[in-house]
Amino acid sequence: MLRTILGTVAVLAVALAAARSPAVTRAGTLSTGDFAPAFVLDTLDGKSVDGNFHGSPAYINVFATWCSPCRREFPAIARQAQQYRDRIAFLLVDEQESASRVQSFALQLGMPAPVAVDRGQFAATFDVRALPESIFIDRQGVVRYIYRGIIPDGVLAAELSALASDSHSSIAAR
Question: Is 57 exposed, middle or buried (0-12, 13-18, 19+ CB in 10 A)?
Fold first, then answer.
């Protein structure tokens, strides 16, 4: 009897600790302050990329080739990728299209960063709700800002500046 009670208390304690931990992210609930979920994606150049950015902050842009707002924001992303290429890891993630279609699109626009194709798992894990979507992750792996929709140039620049300077609060949230 005592063993059963102690076992139940131990299970409840572990469940409570897990529920309160920012490292535990449930699909559909990712928000700022959470640790970025682990992922592995294949890139167009035949390599794979994972969520370990080796202590660098990261900017992830989720897009699709058919998405007009995605196309409109790429020039600003390209400019920022050039400016921050030595301080921030950039990753562009296409949502569920063929690699050949994405490759053609990437070549046409001169994508400034590695491009990966998601088969749906990344979008589910990161709670992607709209395209385009921008995700900013600090060097500790914590999601610092999520922007859904076409990101204004000023917001993109300010958030990347905050990541590069290791500021832990979102400029846009201030």
Answer: buried
| H helix intervals, 21-166 | 68-84, 99-109, 121-125, 153-164
Give the C-alpha distances (Å, rounded to integers) separating 84 from 57, 74, 126: 10, 15, 23
- Contacts of residue 28, defined as CB under 8 A and 6 or more positions apart, other chains included, come to 124, 127
Residue 17's pLDDT is what? 35
**Rg, the chain, Cα only:** 18
Paired tokens of 17: 């600790």
Query: How far, in Å, CA of 118 to CA of 72, rounded?
Result: 21
pLDDT band (50, 70, 90) for residue 12: very low
Mean pLDDT score across all residues of the chain = 82
Whole-number Å distance between alpha carbons of 127 and 92: 16
According to DSSP, residue 159 is labeled H
Q: What is the mean pLDDT of residues 118-130?
A: 92
Residue-range domains of the chain with CATH: 26-164 (3.40.30.10)
Angstrom distance (rounded) from CA 122 to CA 17: 26
